[in-house]
Design brief:
This protein is an all-alpha fold. It is built from 3 helices and no strands. The protein is elongated. The N and C termini lie far apart (36 Å).
Amino acid sequence: MVSLFFLTVSTNVPATPTWTPTTAIIISACCFLSLLISFRISNPKVGLKMPLLPISIPAFIAAMSFGHIIGTGILLGLTNIGSL
């Protein structure tokens, strides 16, 4: 029963890209842009501070997480339209 479920689900999974330097550049750019956006939040310095950035550790982690989510969406979108 379970193997039949996985067989049906596996036919609906879209193609995913393999890791290349292009995918790393896309993810890095998205993380960098989300970090720049996080400087505009109202209280970025609440909590423990990052050593070299004017932002707190929770805001930095949130920005990196958001950048990875956006980057993954961009990678999947580019793969589905055939550009990557």
